[in-house]
Design a protein that fits this description.
- There is one protein chain.
- With 142 residues, this protein is mainly alpha-helical.
- The protein contains five helices and two strands, in the order αααααββ.
- It has a two-stranded antiparallel sheet with strand order 1-2.
Amino acid sequence: MSLKLFFADTTIKAYDLIRTAISERHSDDDVYSHYRVQQLTSELSGVVPLVHDTCINTCLAFTGPFGDLDRCPRCREDHWDKKRSTLQKKALWRHPDHAKKMRWREERTDQILEELGLTGGVPEVYEDMPANPAKSRKATLS
């Protein structure tokens, strides 16, 4: 029953409400929590959810070159819940390697945004943004 409900394409809130209603009416039936069914489904299928934050105004997803931005470059809305993100960032900044990576991405994103502003939104050079900047691939666009 848990799987059937999980694949019914409902919101997590709706799933939990239906689960509660079923449990109240049929107390002998064990309906798993949404989280537990999701974990079991991932274990059985090997398919895992990919979750990315998006701008509150749906301008973009904070992934790839935008993954470490604090604000949306288009509408300037905050990316993070300030209270939660402060603790996470403090922990990352403590380690020199993480701090270096976080600065590189911010600096490179600023360069890309500046270039796009100067070229009317068309990059002169396409460049993948790998985890290791030394392994970057470039292709000139014509």
